[in-house]
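Our collaborator T.R. sent over the components below with a one-line note: 'Predict the complex.' Nothing else. No constraints on interfaces, no templates requested, no preferences about which chain binds where. So this is a plain run: every listed entity goes in together, and whatever single assembly comes back becomes the starting point for the next discussion.
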Amino acid sequence: MSIAVLQQGIMDTIQDKGRYGFQHLGINPGGVMDRIAMAVANALTGNPPGEAVLELHFPAGKYLFEAPALIALSGGDFSAAINGLAVPMHKLLYVQAGAILTFEKLRSGARCYLAVRHGFSLTPWLGSYSTHLKVAQGGFNGRALRKGDKLPLRQSAQFTGDRHPETFPWTAATSHLYHQQGAVRILPGACWDILEASSQQQLTTGSFLIGPHSDRMGFRLNGTPLRTVRKEEQLSAGICRGAIQLLPDGQLIILMADHQTTGGYPVAAHVITADMPALAQYQPGQSLQFSVISGEAATTALWQQEKAVRYLQHASQLHLEKWLLPYELYRS
Amino acid sequence: MNPDYVIHPLGDSAVILKWQQQISMAIHQEVMKTYYSLRSGTSSYILDLIPAYASLTIVYDAAQLRRHERIPGLQWMTAYIRKQTTTQATVSFPAPRELHIPVCYDPSLGPDITEMAASRHVAIEDIITWHSQTIYTVYLTGFLPGFPYMGEVCPALATPRRQQPRLHVPAGSVGIAGVQTGIYPLDSPGGWNIIGQTPLRMFDAAKADPCYCRPGDRVQFIPVTLEVFRQIQQEQ
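Returned assembly:
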């Protein structure tokens, strides 16, 4: 009862909402880069919002379902296909035993999420299923999936009737869950006031390119170097996801899921929490702009987003109960 | 307790408490008192507390906070932190642990010790004595899981980071960066000046408490020979 890896992707890992409570020991939370996509895929399959999912980067792996499963894909669109037939995103899909899932082409985004109803059967490390690559813990054997791995499922989809639907007749609307205005919204950081006026202007109106060495740890930005009116020596201090650090050469780096727990570089600004999922879907080479908003507006944006995700979860649950009860044998 | 700190927002999901920005035992004591006082609190909104030299970072669940409290996160956190750190008469504050960490300073394990001695016109033994006679405080763990930032080394030992970081520093390596000394818990690239290696495992994922050192600990290094180093390594 597992999903076998027929072909290895460049970076397919198990992630959940993150491993909190250990940053004082230098153990970073990690977790999914796009928590909205995780929540959507989990909502569609009827899982709790933070259940562990498979995070895929393109090119993603090729997967054989050794048992029937109910799955959902959300986040970046990698042109998923089951047995060569294209399947839609943001839908509940029934996959038969023996089916092969492939990802053909990068259409949009940077990270695609696969949730399986009832989740994966794995051992958590320090209370989380997130893969911690540095210490080789969590997720599947503490590492990215490789050819030959068998990702065990907690439970396969059990159908009592004859009908084996391939897709179910509803789709999660997701566009309103992400900020669509183009600019990534930020709040000023601790070194904002010592940025030269022209650099403040550059940060809020200029374009930045996501550099090739951007990964789950951080997005390195290329743009006109920013300058400060004076150099400030910083003592290392605890840092957080979304912080935009100013490097000595004037370039910026945005701390993402696998960021270090402490940092010594000055912080120019912070990406608001509500916009981290949208940011996570940017690819290296894409350009990016920032716009400053107020702390209050940031909280409101996050709150609207959380409410919308919750509505989706409820709606999904209602559909699931209506559709699955006649077919699925609940064994728990 | 004297809440002698200033609260700054770090975006919309974290705040930082900052004391006077210097490496000082007295200030760090305040940081740790505040850390333990907030740790003993019951707020489910707080996800992480990260004590450092002269600051404490608090990461919180902004969405849950907004959902239940209906006021901006920063405002709520500020009030909570002030209340939690001023109303508690006594903070249950575990006594700092005294850790003795064996270190072999053989140049085969501490590739920078020879250069460090040569540049100061002293013997390698002097470097060993200077490094091992001080009792250090673990001010923070960061950079890598379980990497202890300790201070301060005696002024004669203070050395800037290497111009070219090494691509591979073995786990257990003991290094110096500025006035700090630290131990690499895992194999990693790194720019600290490596003067020795401990056979102890600084990070063991199999343990419930996987890090050997934690902020607040007091550490003394015990010089050991290569022979003893290998022996302890085998016993691990």
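Summary for T.R.: The helical segments of chain B are 25-39, 62-69, 73-87, 113-120, 124-133, 226-235.
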